[in-house]
Amino acid sequence: MFRFKTEQKVFEIAGVRIGGQPGENPPFLIASMFHNKDRILVDRKGNFDRQKAKELIKKQEELSASTGIPGMVAVVANTPEEAQVYIDFYLETTDMPFGIDMWVAEKRAKATEYISKLGVQDKFLYNSITPWDKDIRGQVNKLKDLGIKHVVVQAFDDGDQSPAGRLKSLESILAQGADGFETVLVDTSVMNLPATSFSLLANRLIKEKLGLPCGGAYSNGTHMWGDAKTIWSLDGFKAMDAVAQGMCSVLWSDFNFYGPIVTAPRIFPAVATAHILLSTLVYDETEQIPGNQDLPIRKYFSAFIEKLTSGGARK
Questions:
Q1: How far apart are CA 27 and CA 202, in angstroms?
Q2: Which residues, including other chains, have CB under 8 Å from residue 286's CB and lie 6 or more apart?
Q3: Fewer CB within 10 A of the terminal residue: the chain, N end or C end?
Q4: Whole domain around residue 19: which residue ranges?
């Protein structure tokens, strides 16, 4: 269940290792900033609360250091000009990798040109090449011309929304040149909370066949369920969100778009807890704890690992 026969690819973005066998590397947690209703926003002209934005980024850095779970931020913008303001601010504030979140392909392309102009392709994750793009080959060629190295490919088939449909969609996109980047991460398209399971099963299918790192925007499943706050209150929603995103990180996920960065104080501990449990599930199957010293279980339970590997923990 937690060991694939297929060799699992591991990619590196700005020193962050992503992918591999389940439990080999901590999941990569990707936050969003400057999204609609983000309280740090003043307007959509690039004006925002810079001090608060810096505090949020530094808090994620602290959580990343304490848990061993790497993170980055995807900045949300409506125009290339707005994106440039956020990119400049981010690069001045942190060394973490980053991405941009822009739905309109033409505007996203303009923002990507700015990243190329700055020469920061090594720490930039392009999100994303999708099955809805009209000219995938043209987009791929443009990105390669700009020196883009790291991309997310979104896998989804409107006609076949099963896990197998996501695999089929991915293979079609890869065949159009998207397999030619230094890093290829696969987003298996979360549509709602219960359908998240289809994305997780697609992760397993894709890792088994192609060995590519997989994950998803699991916050789509949790934050889009607006009734949760009415049914369970805000505290109940927070619990649901943490549980869902922690559980997803166990089930064949190498990365997680986890939603607004303000939620980092609950998401990092939730994912760290889930990964600790994954580590012992992997041990039961393989009789090994991966050697990565940044694994949450190694940070918090080193004495247990010594006891486990000596056989004492099973007695």
A1: 17
A2: 2, 3
A3: C
A4: 10-275
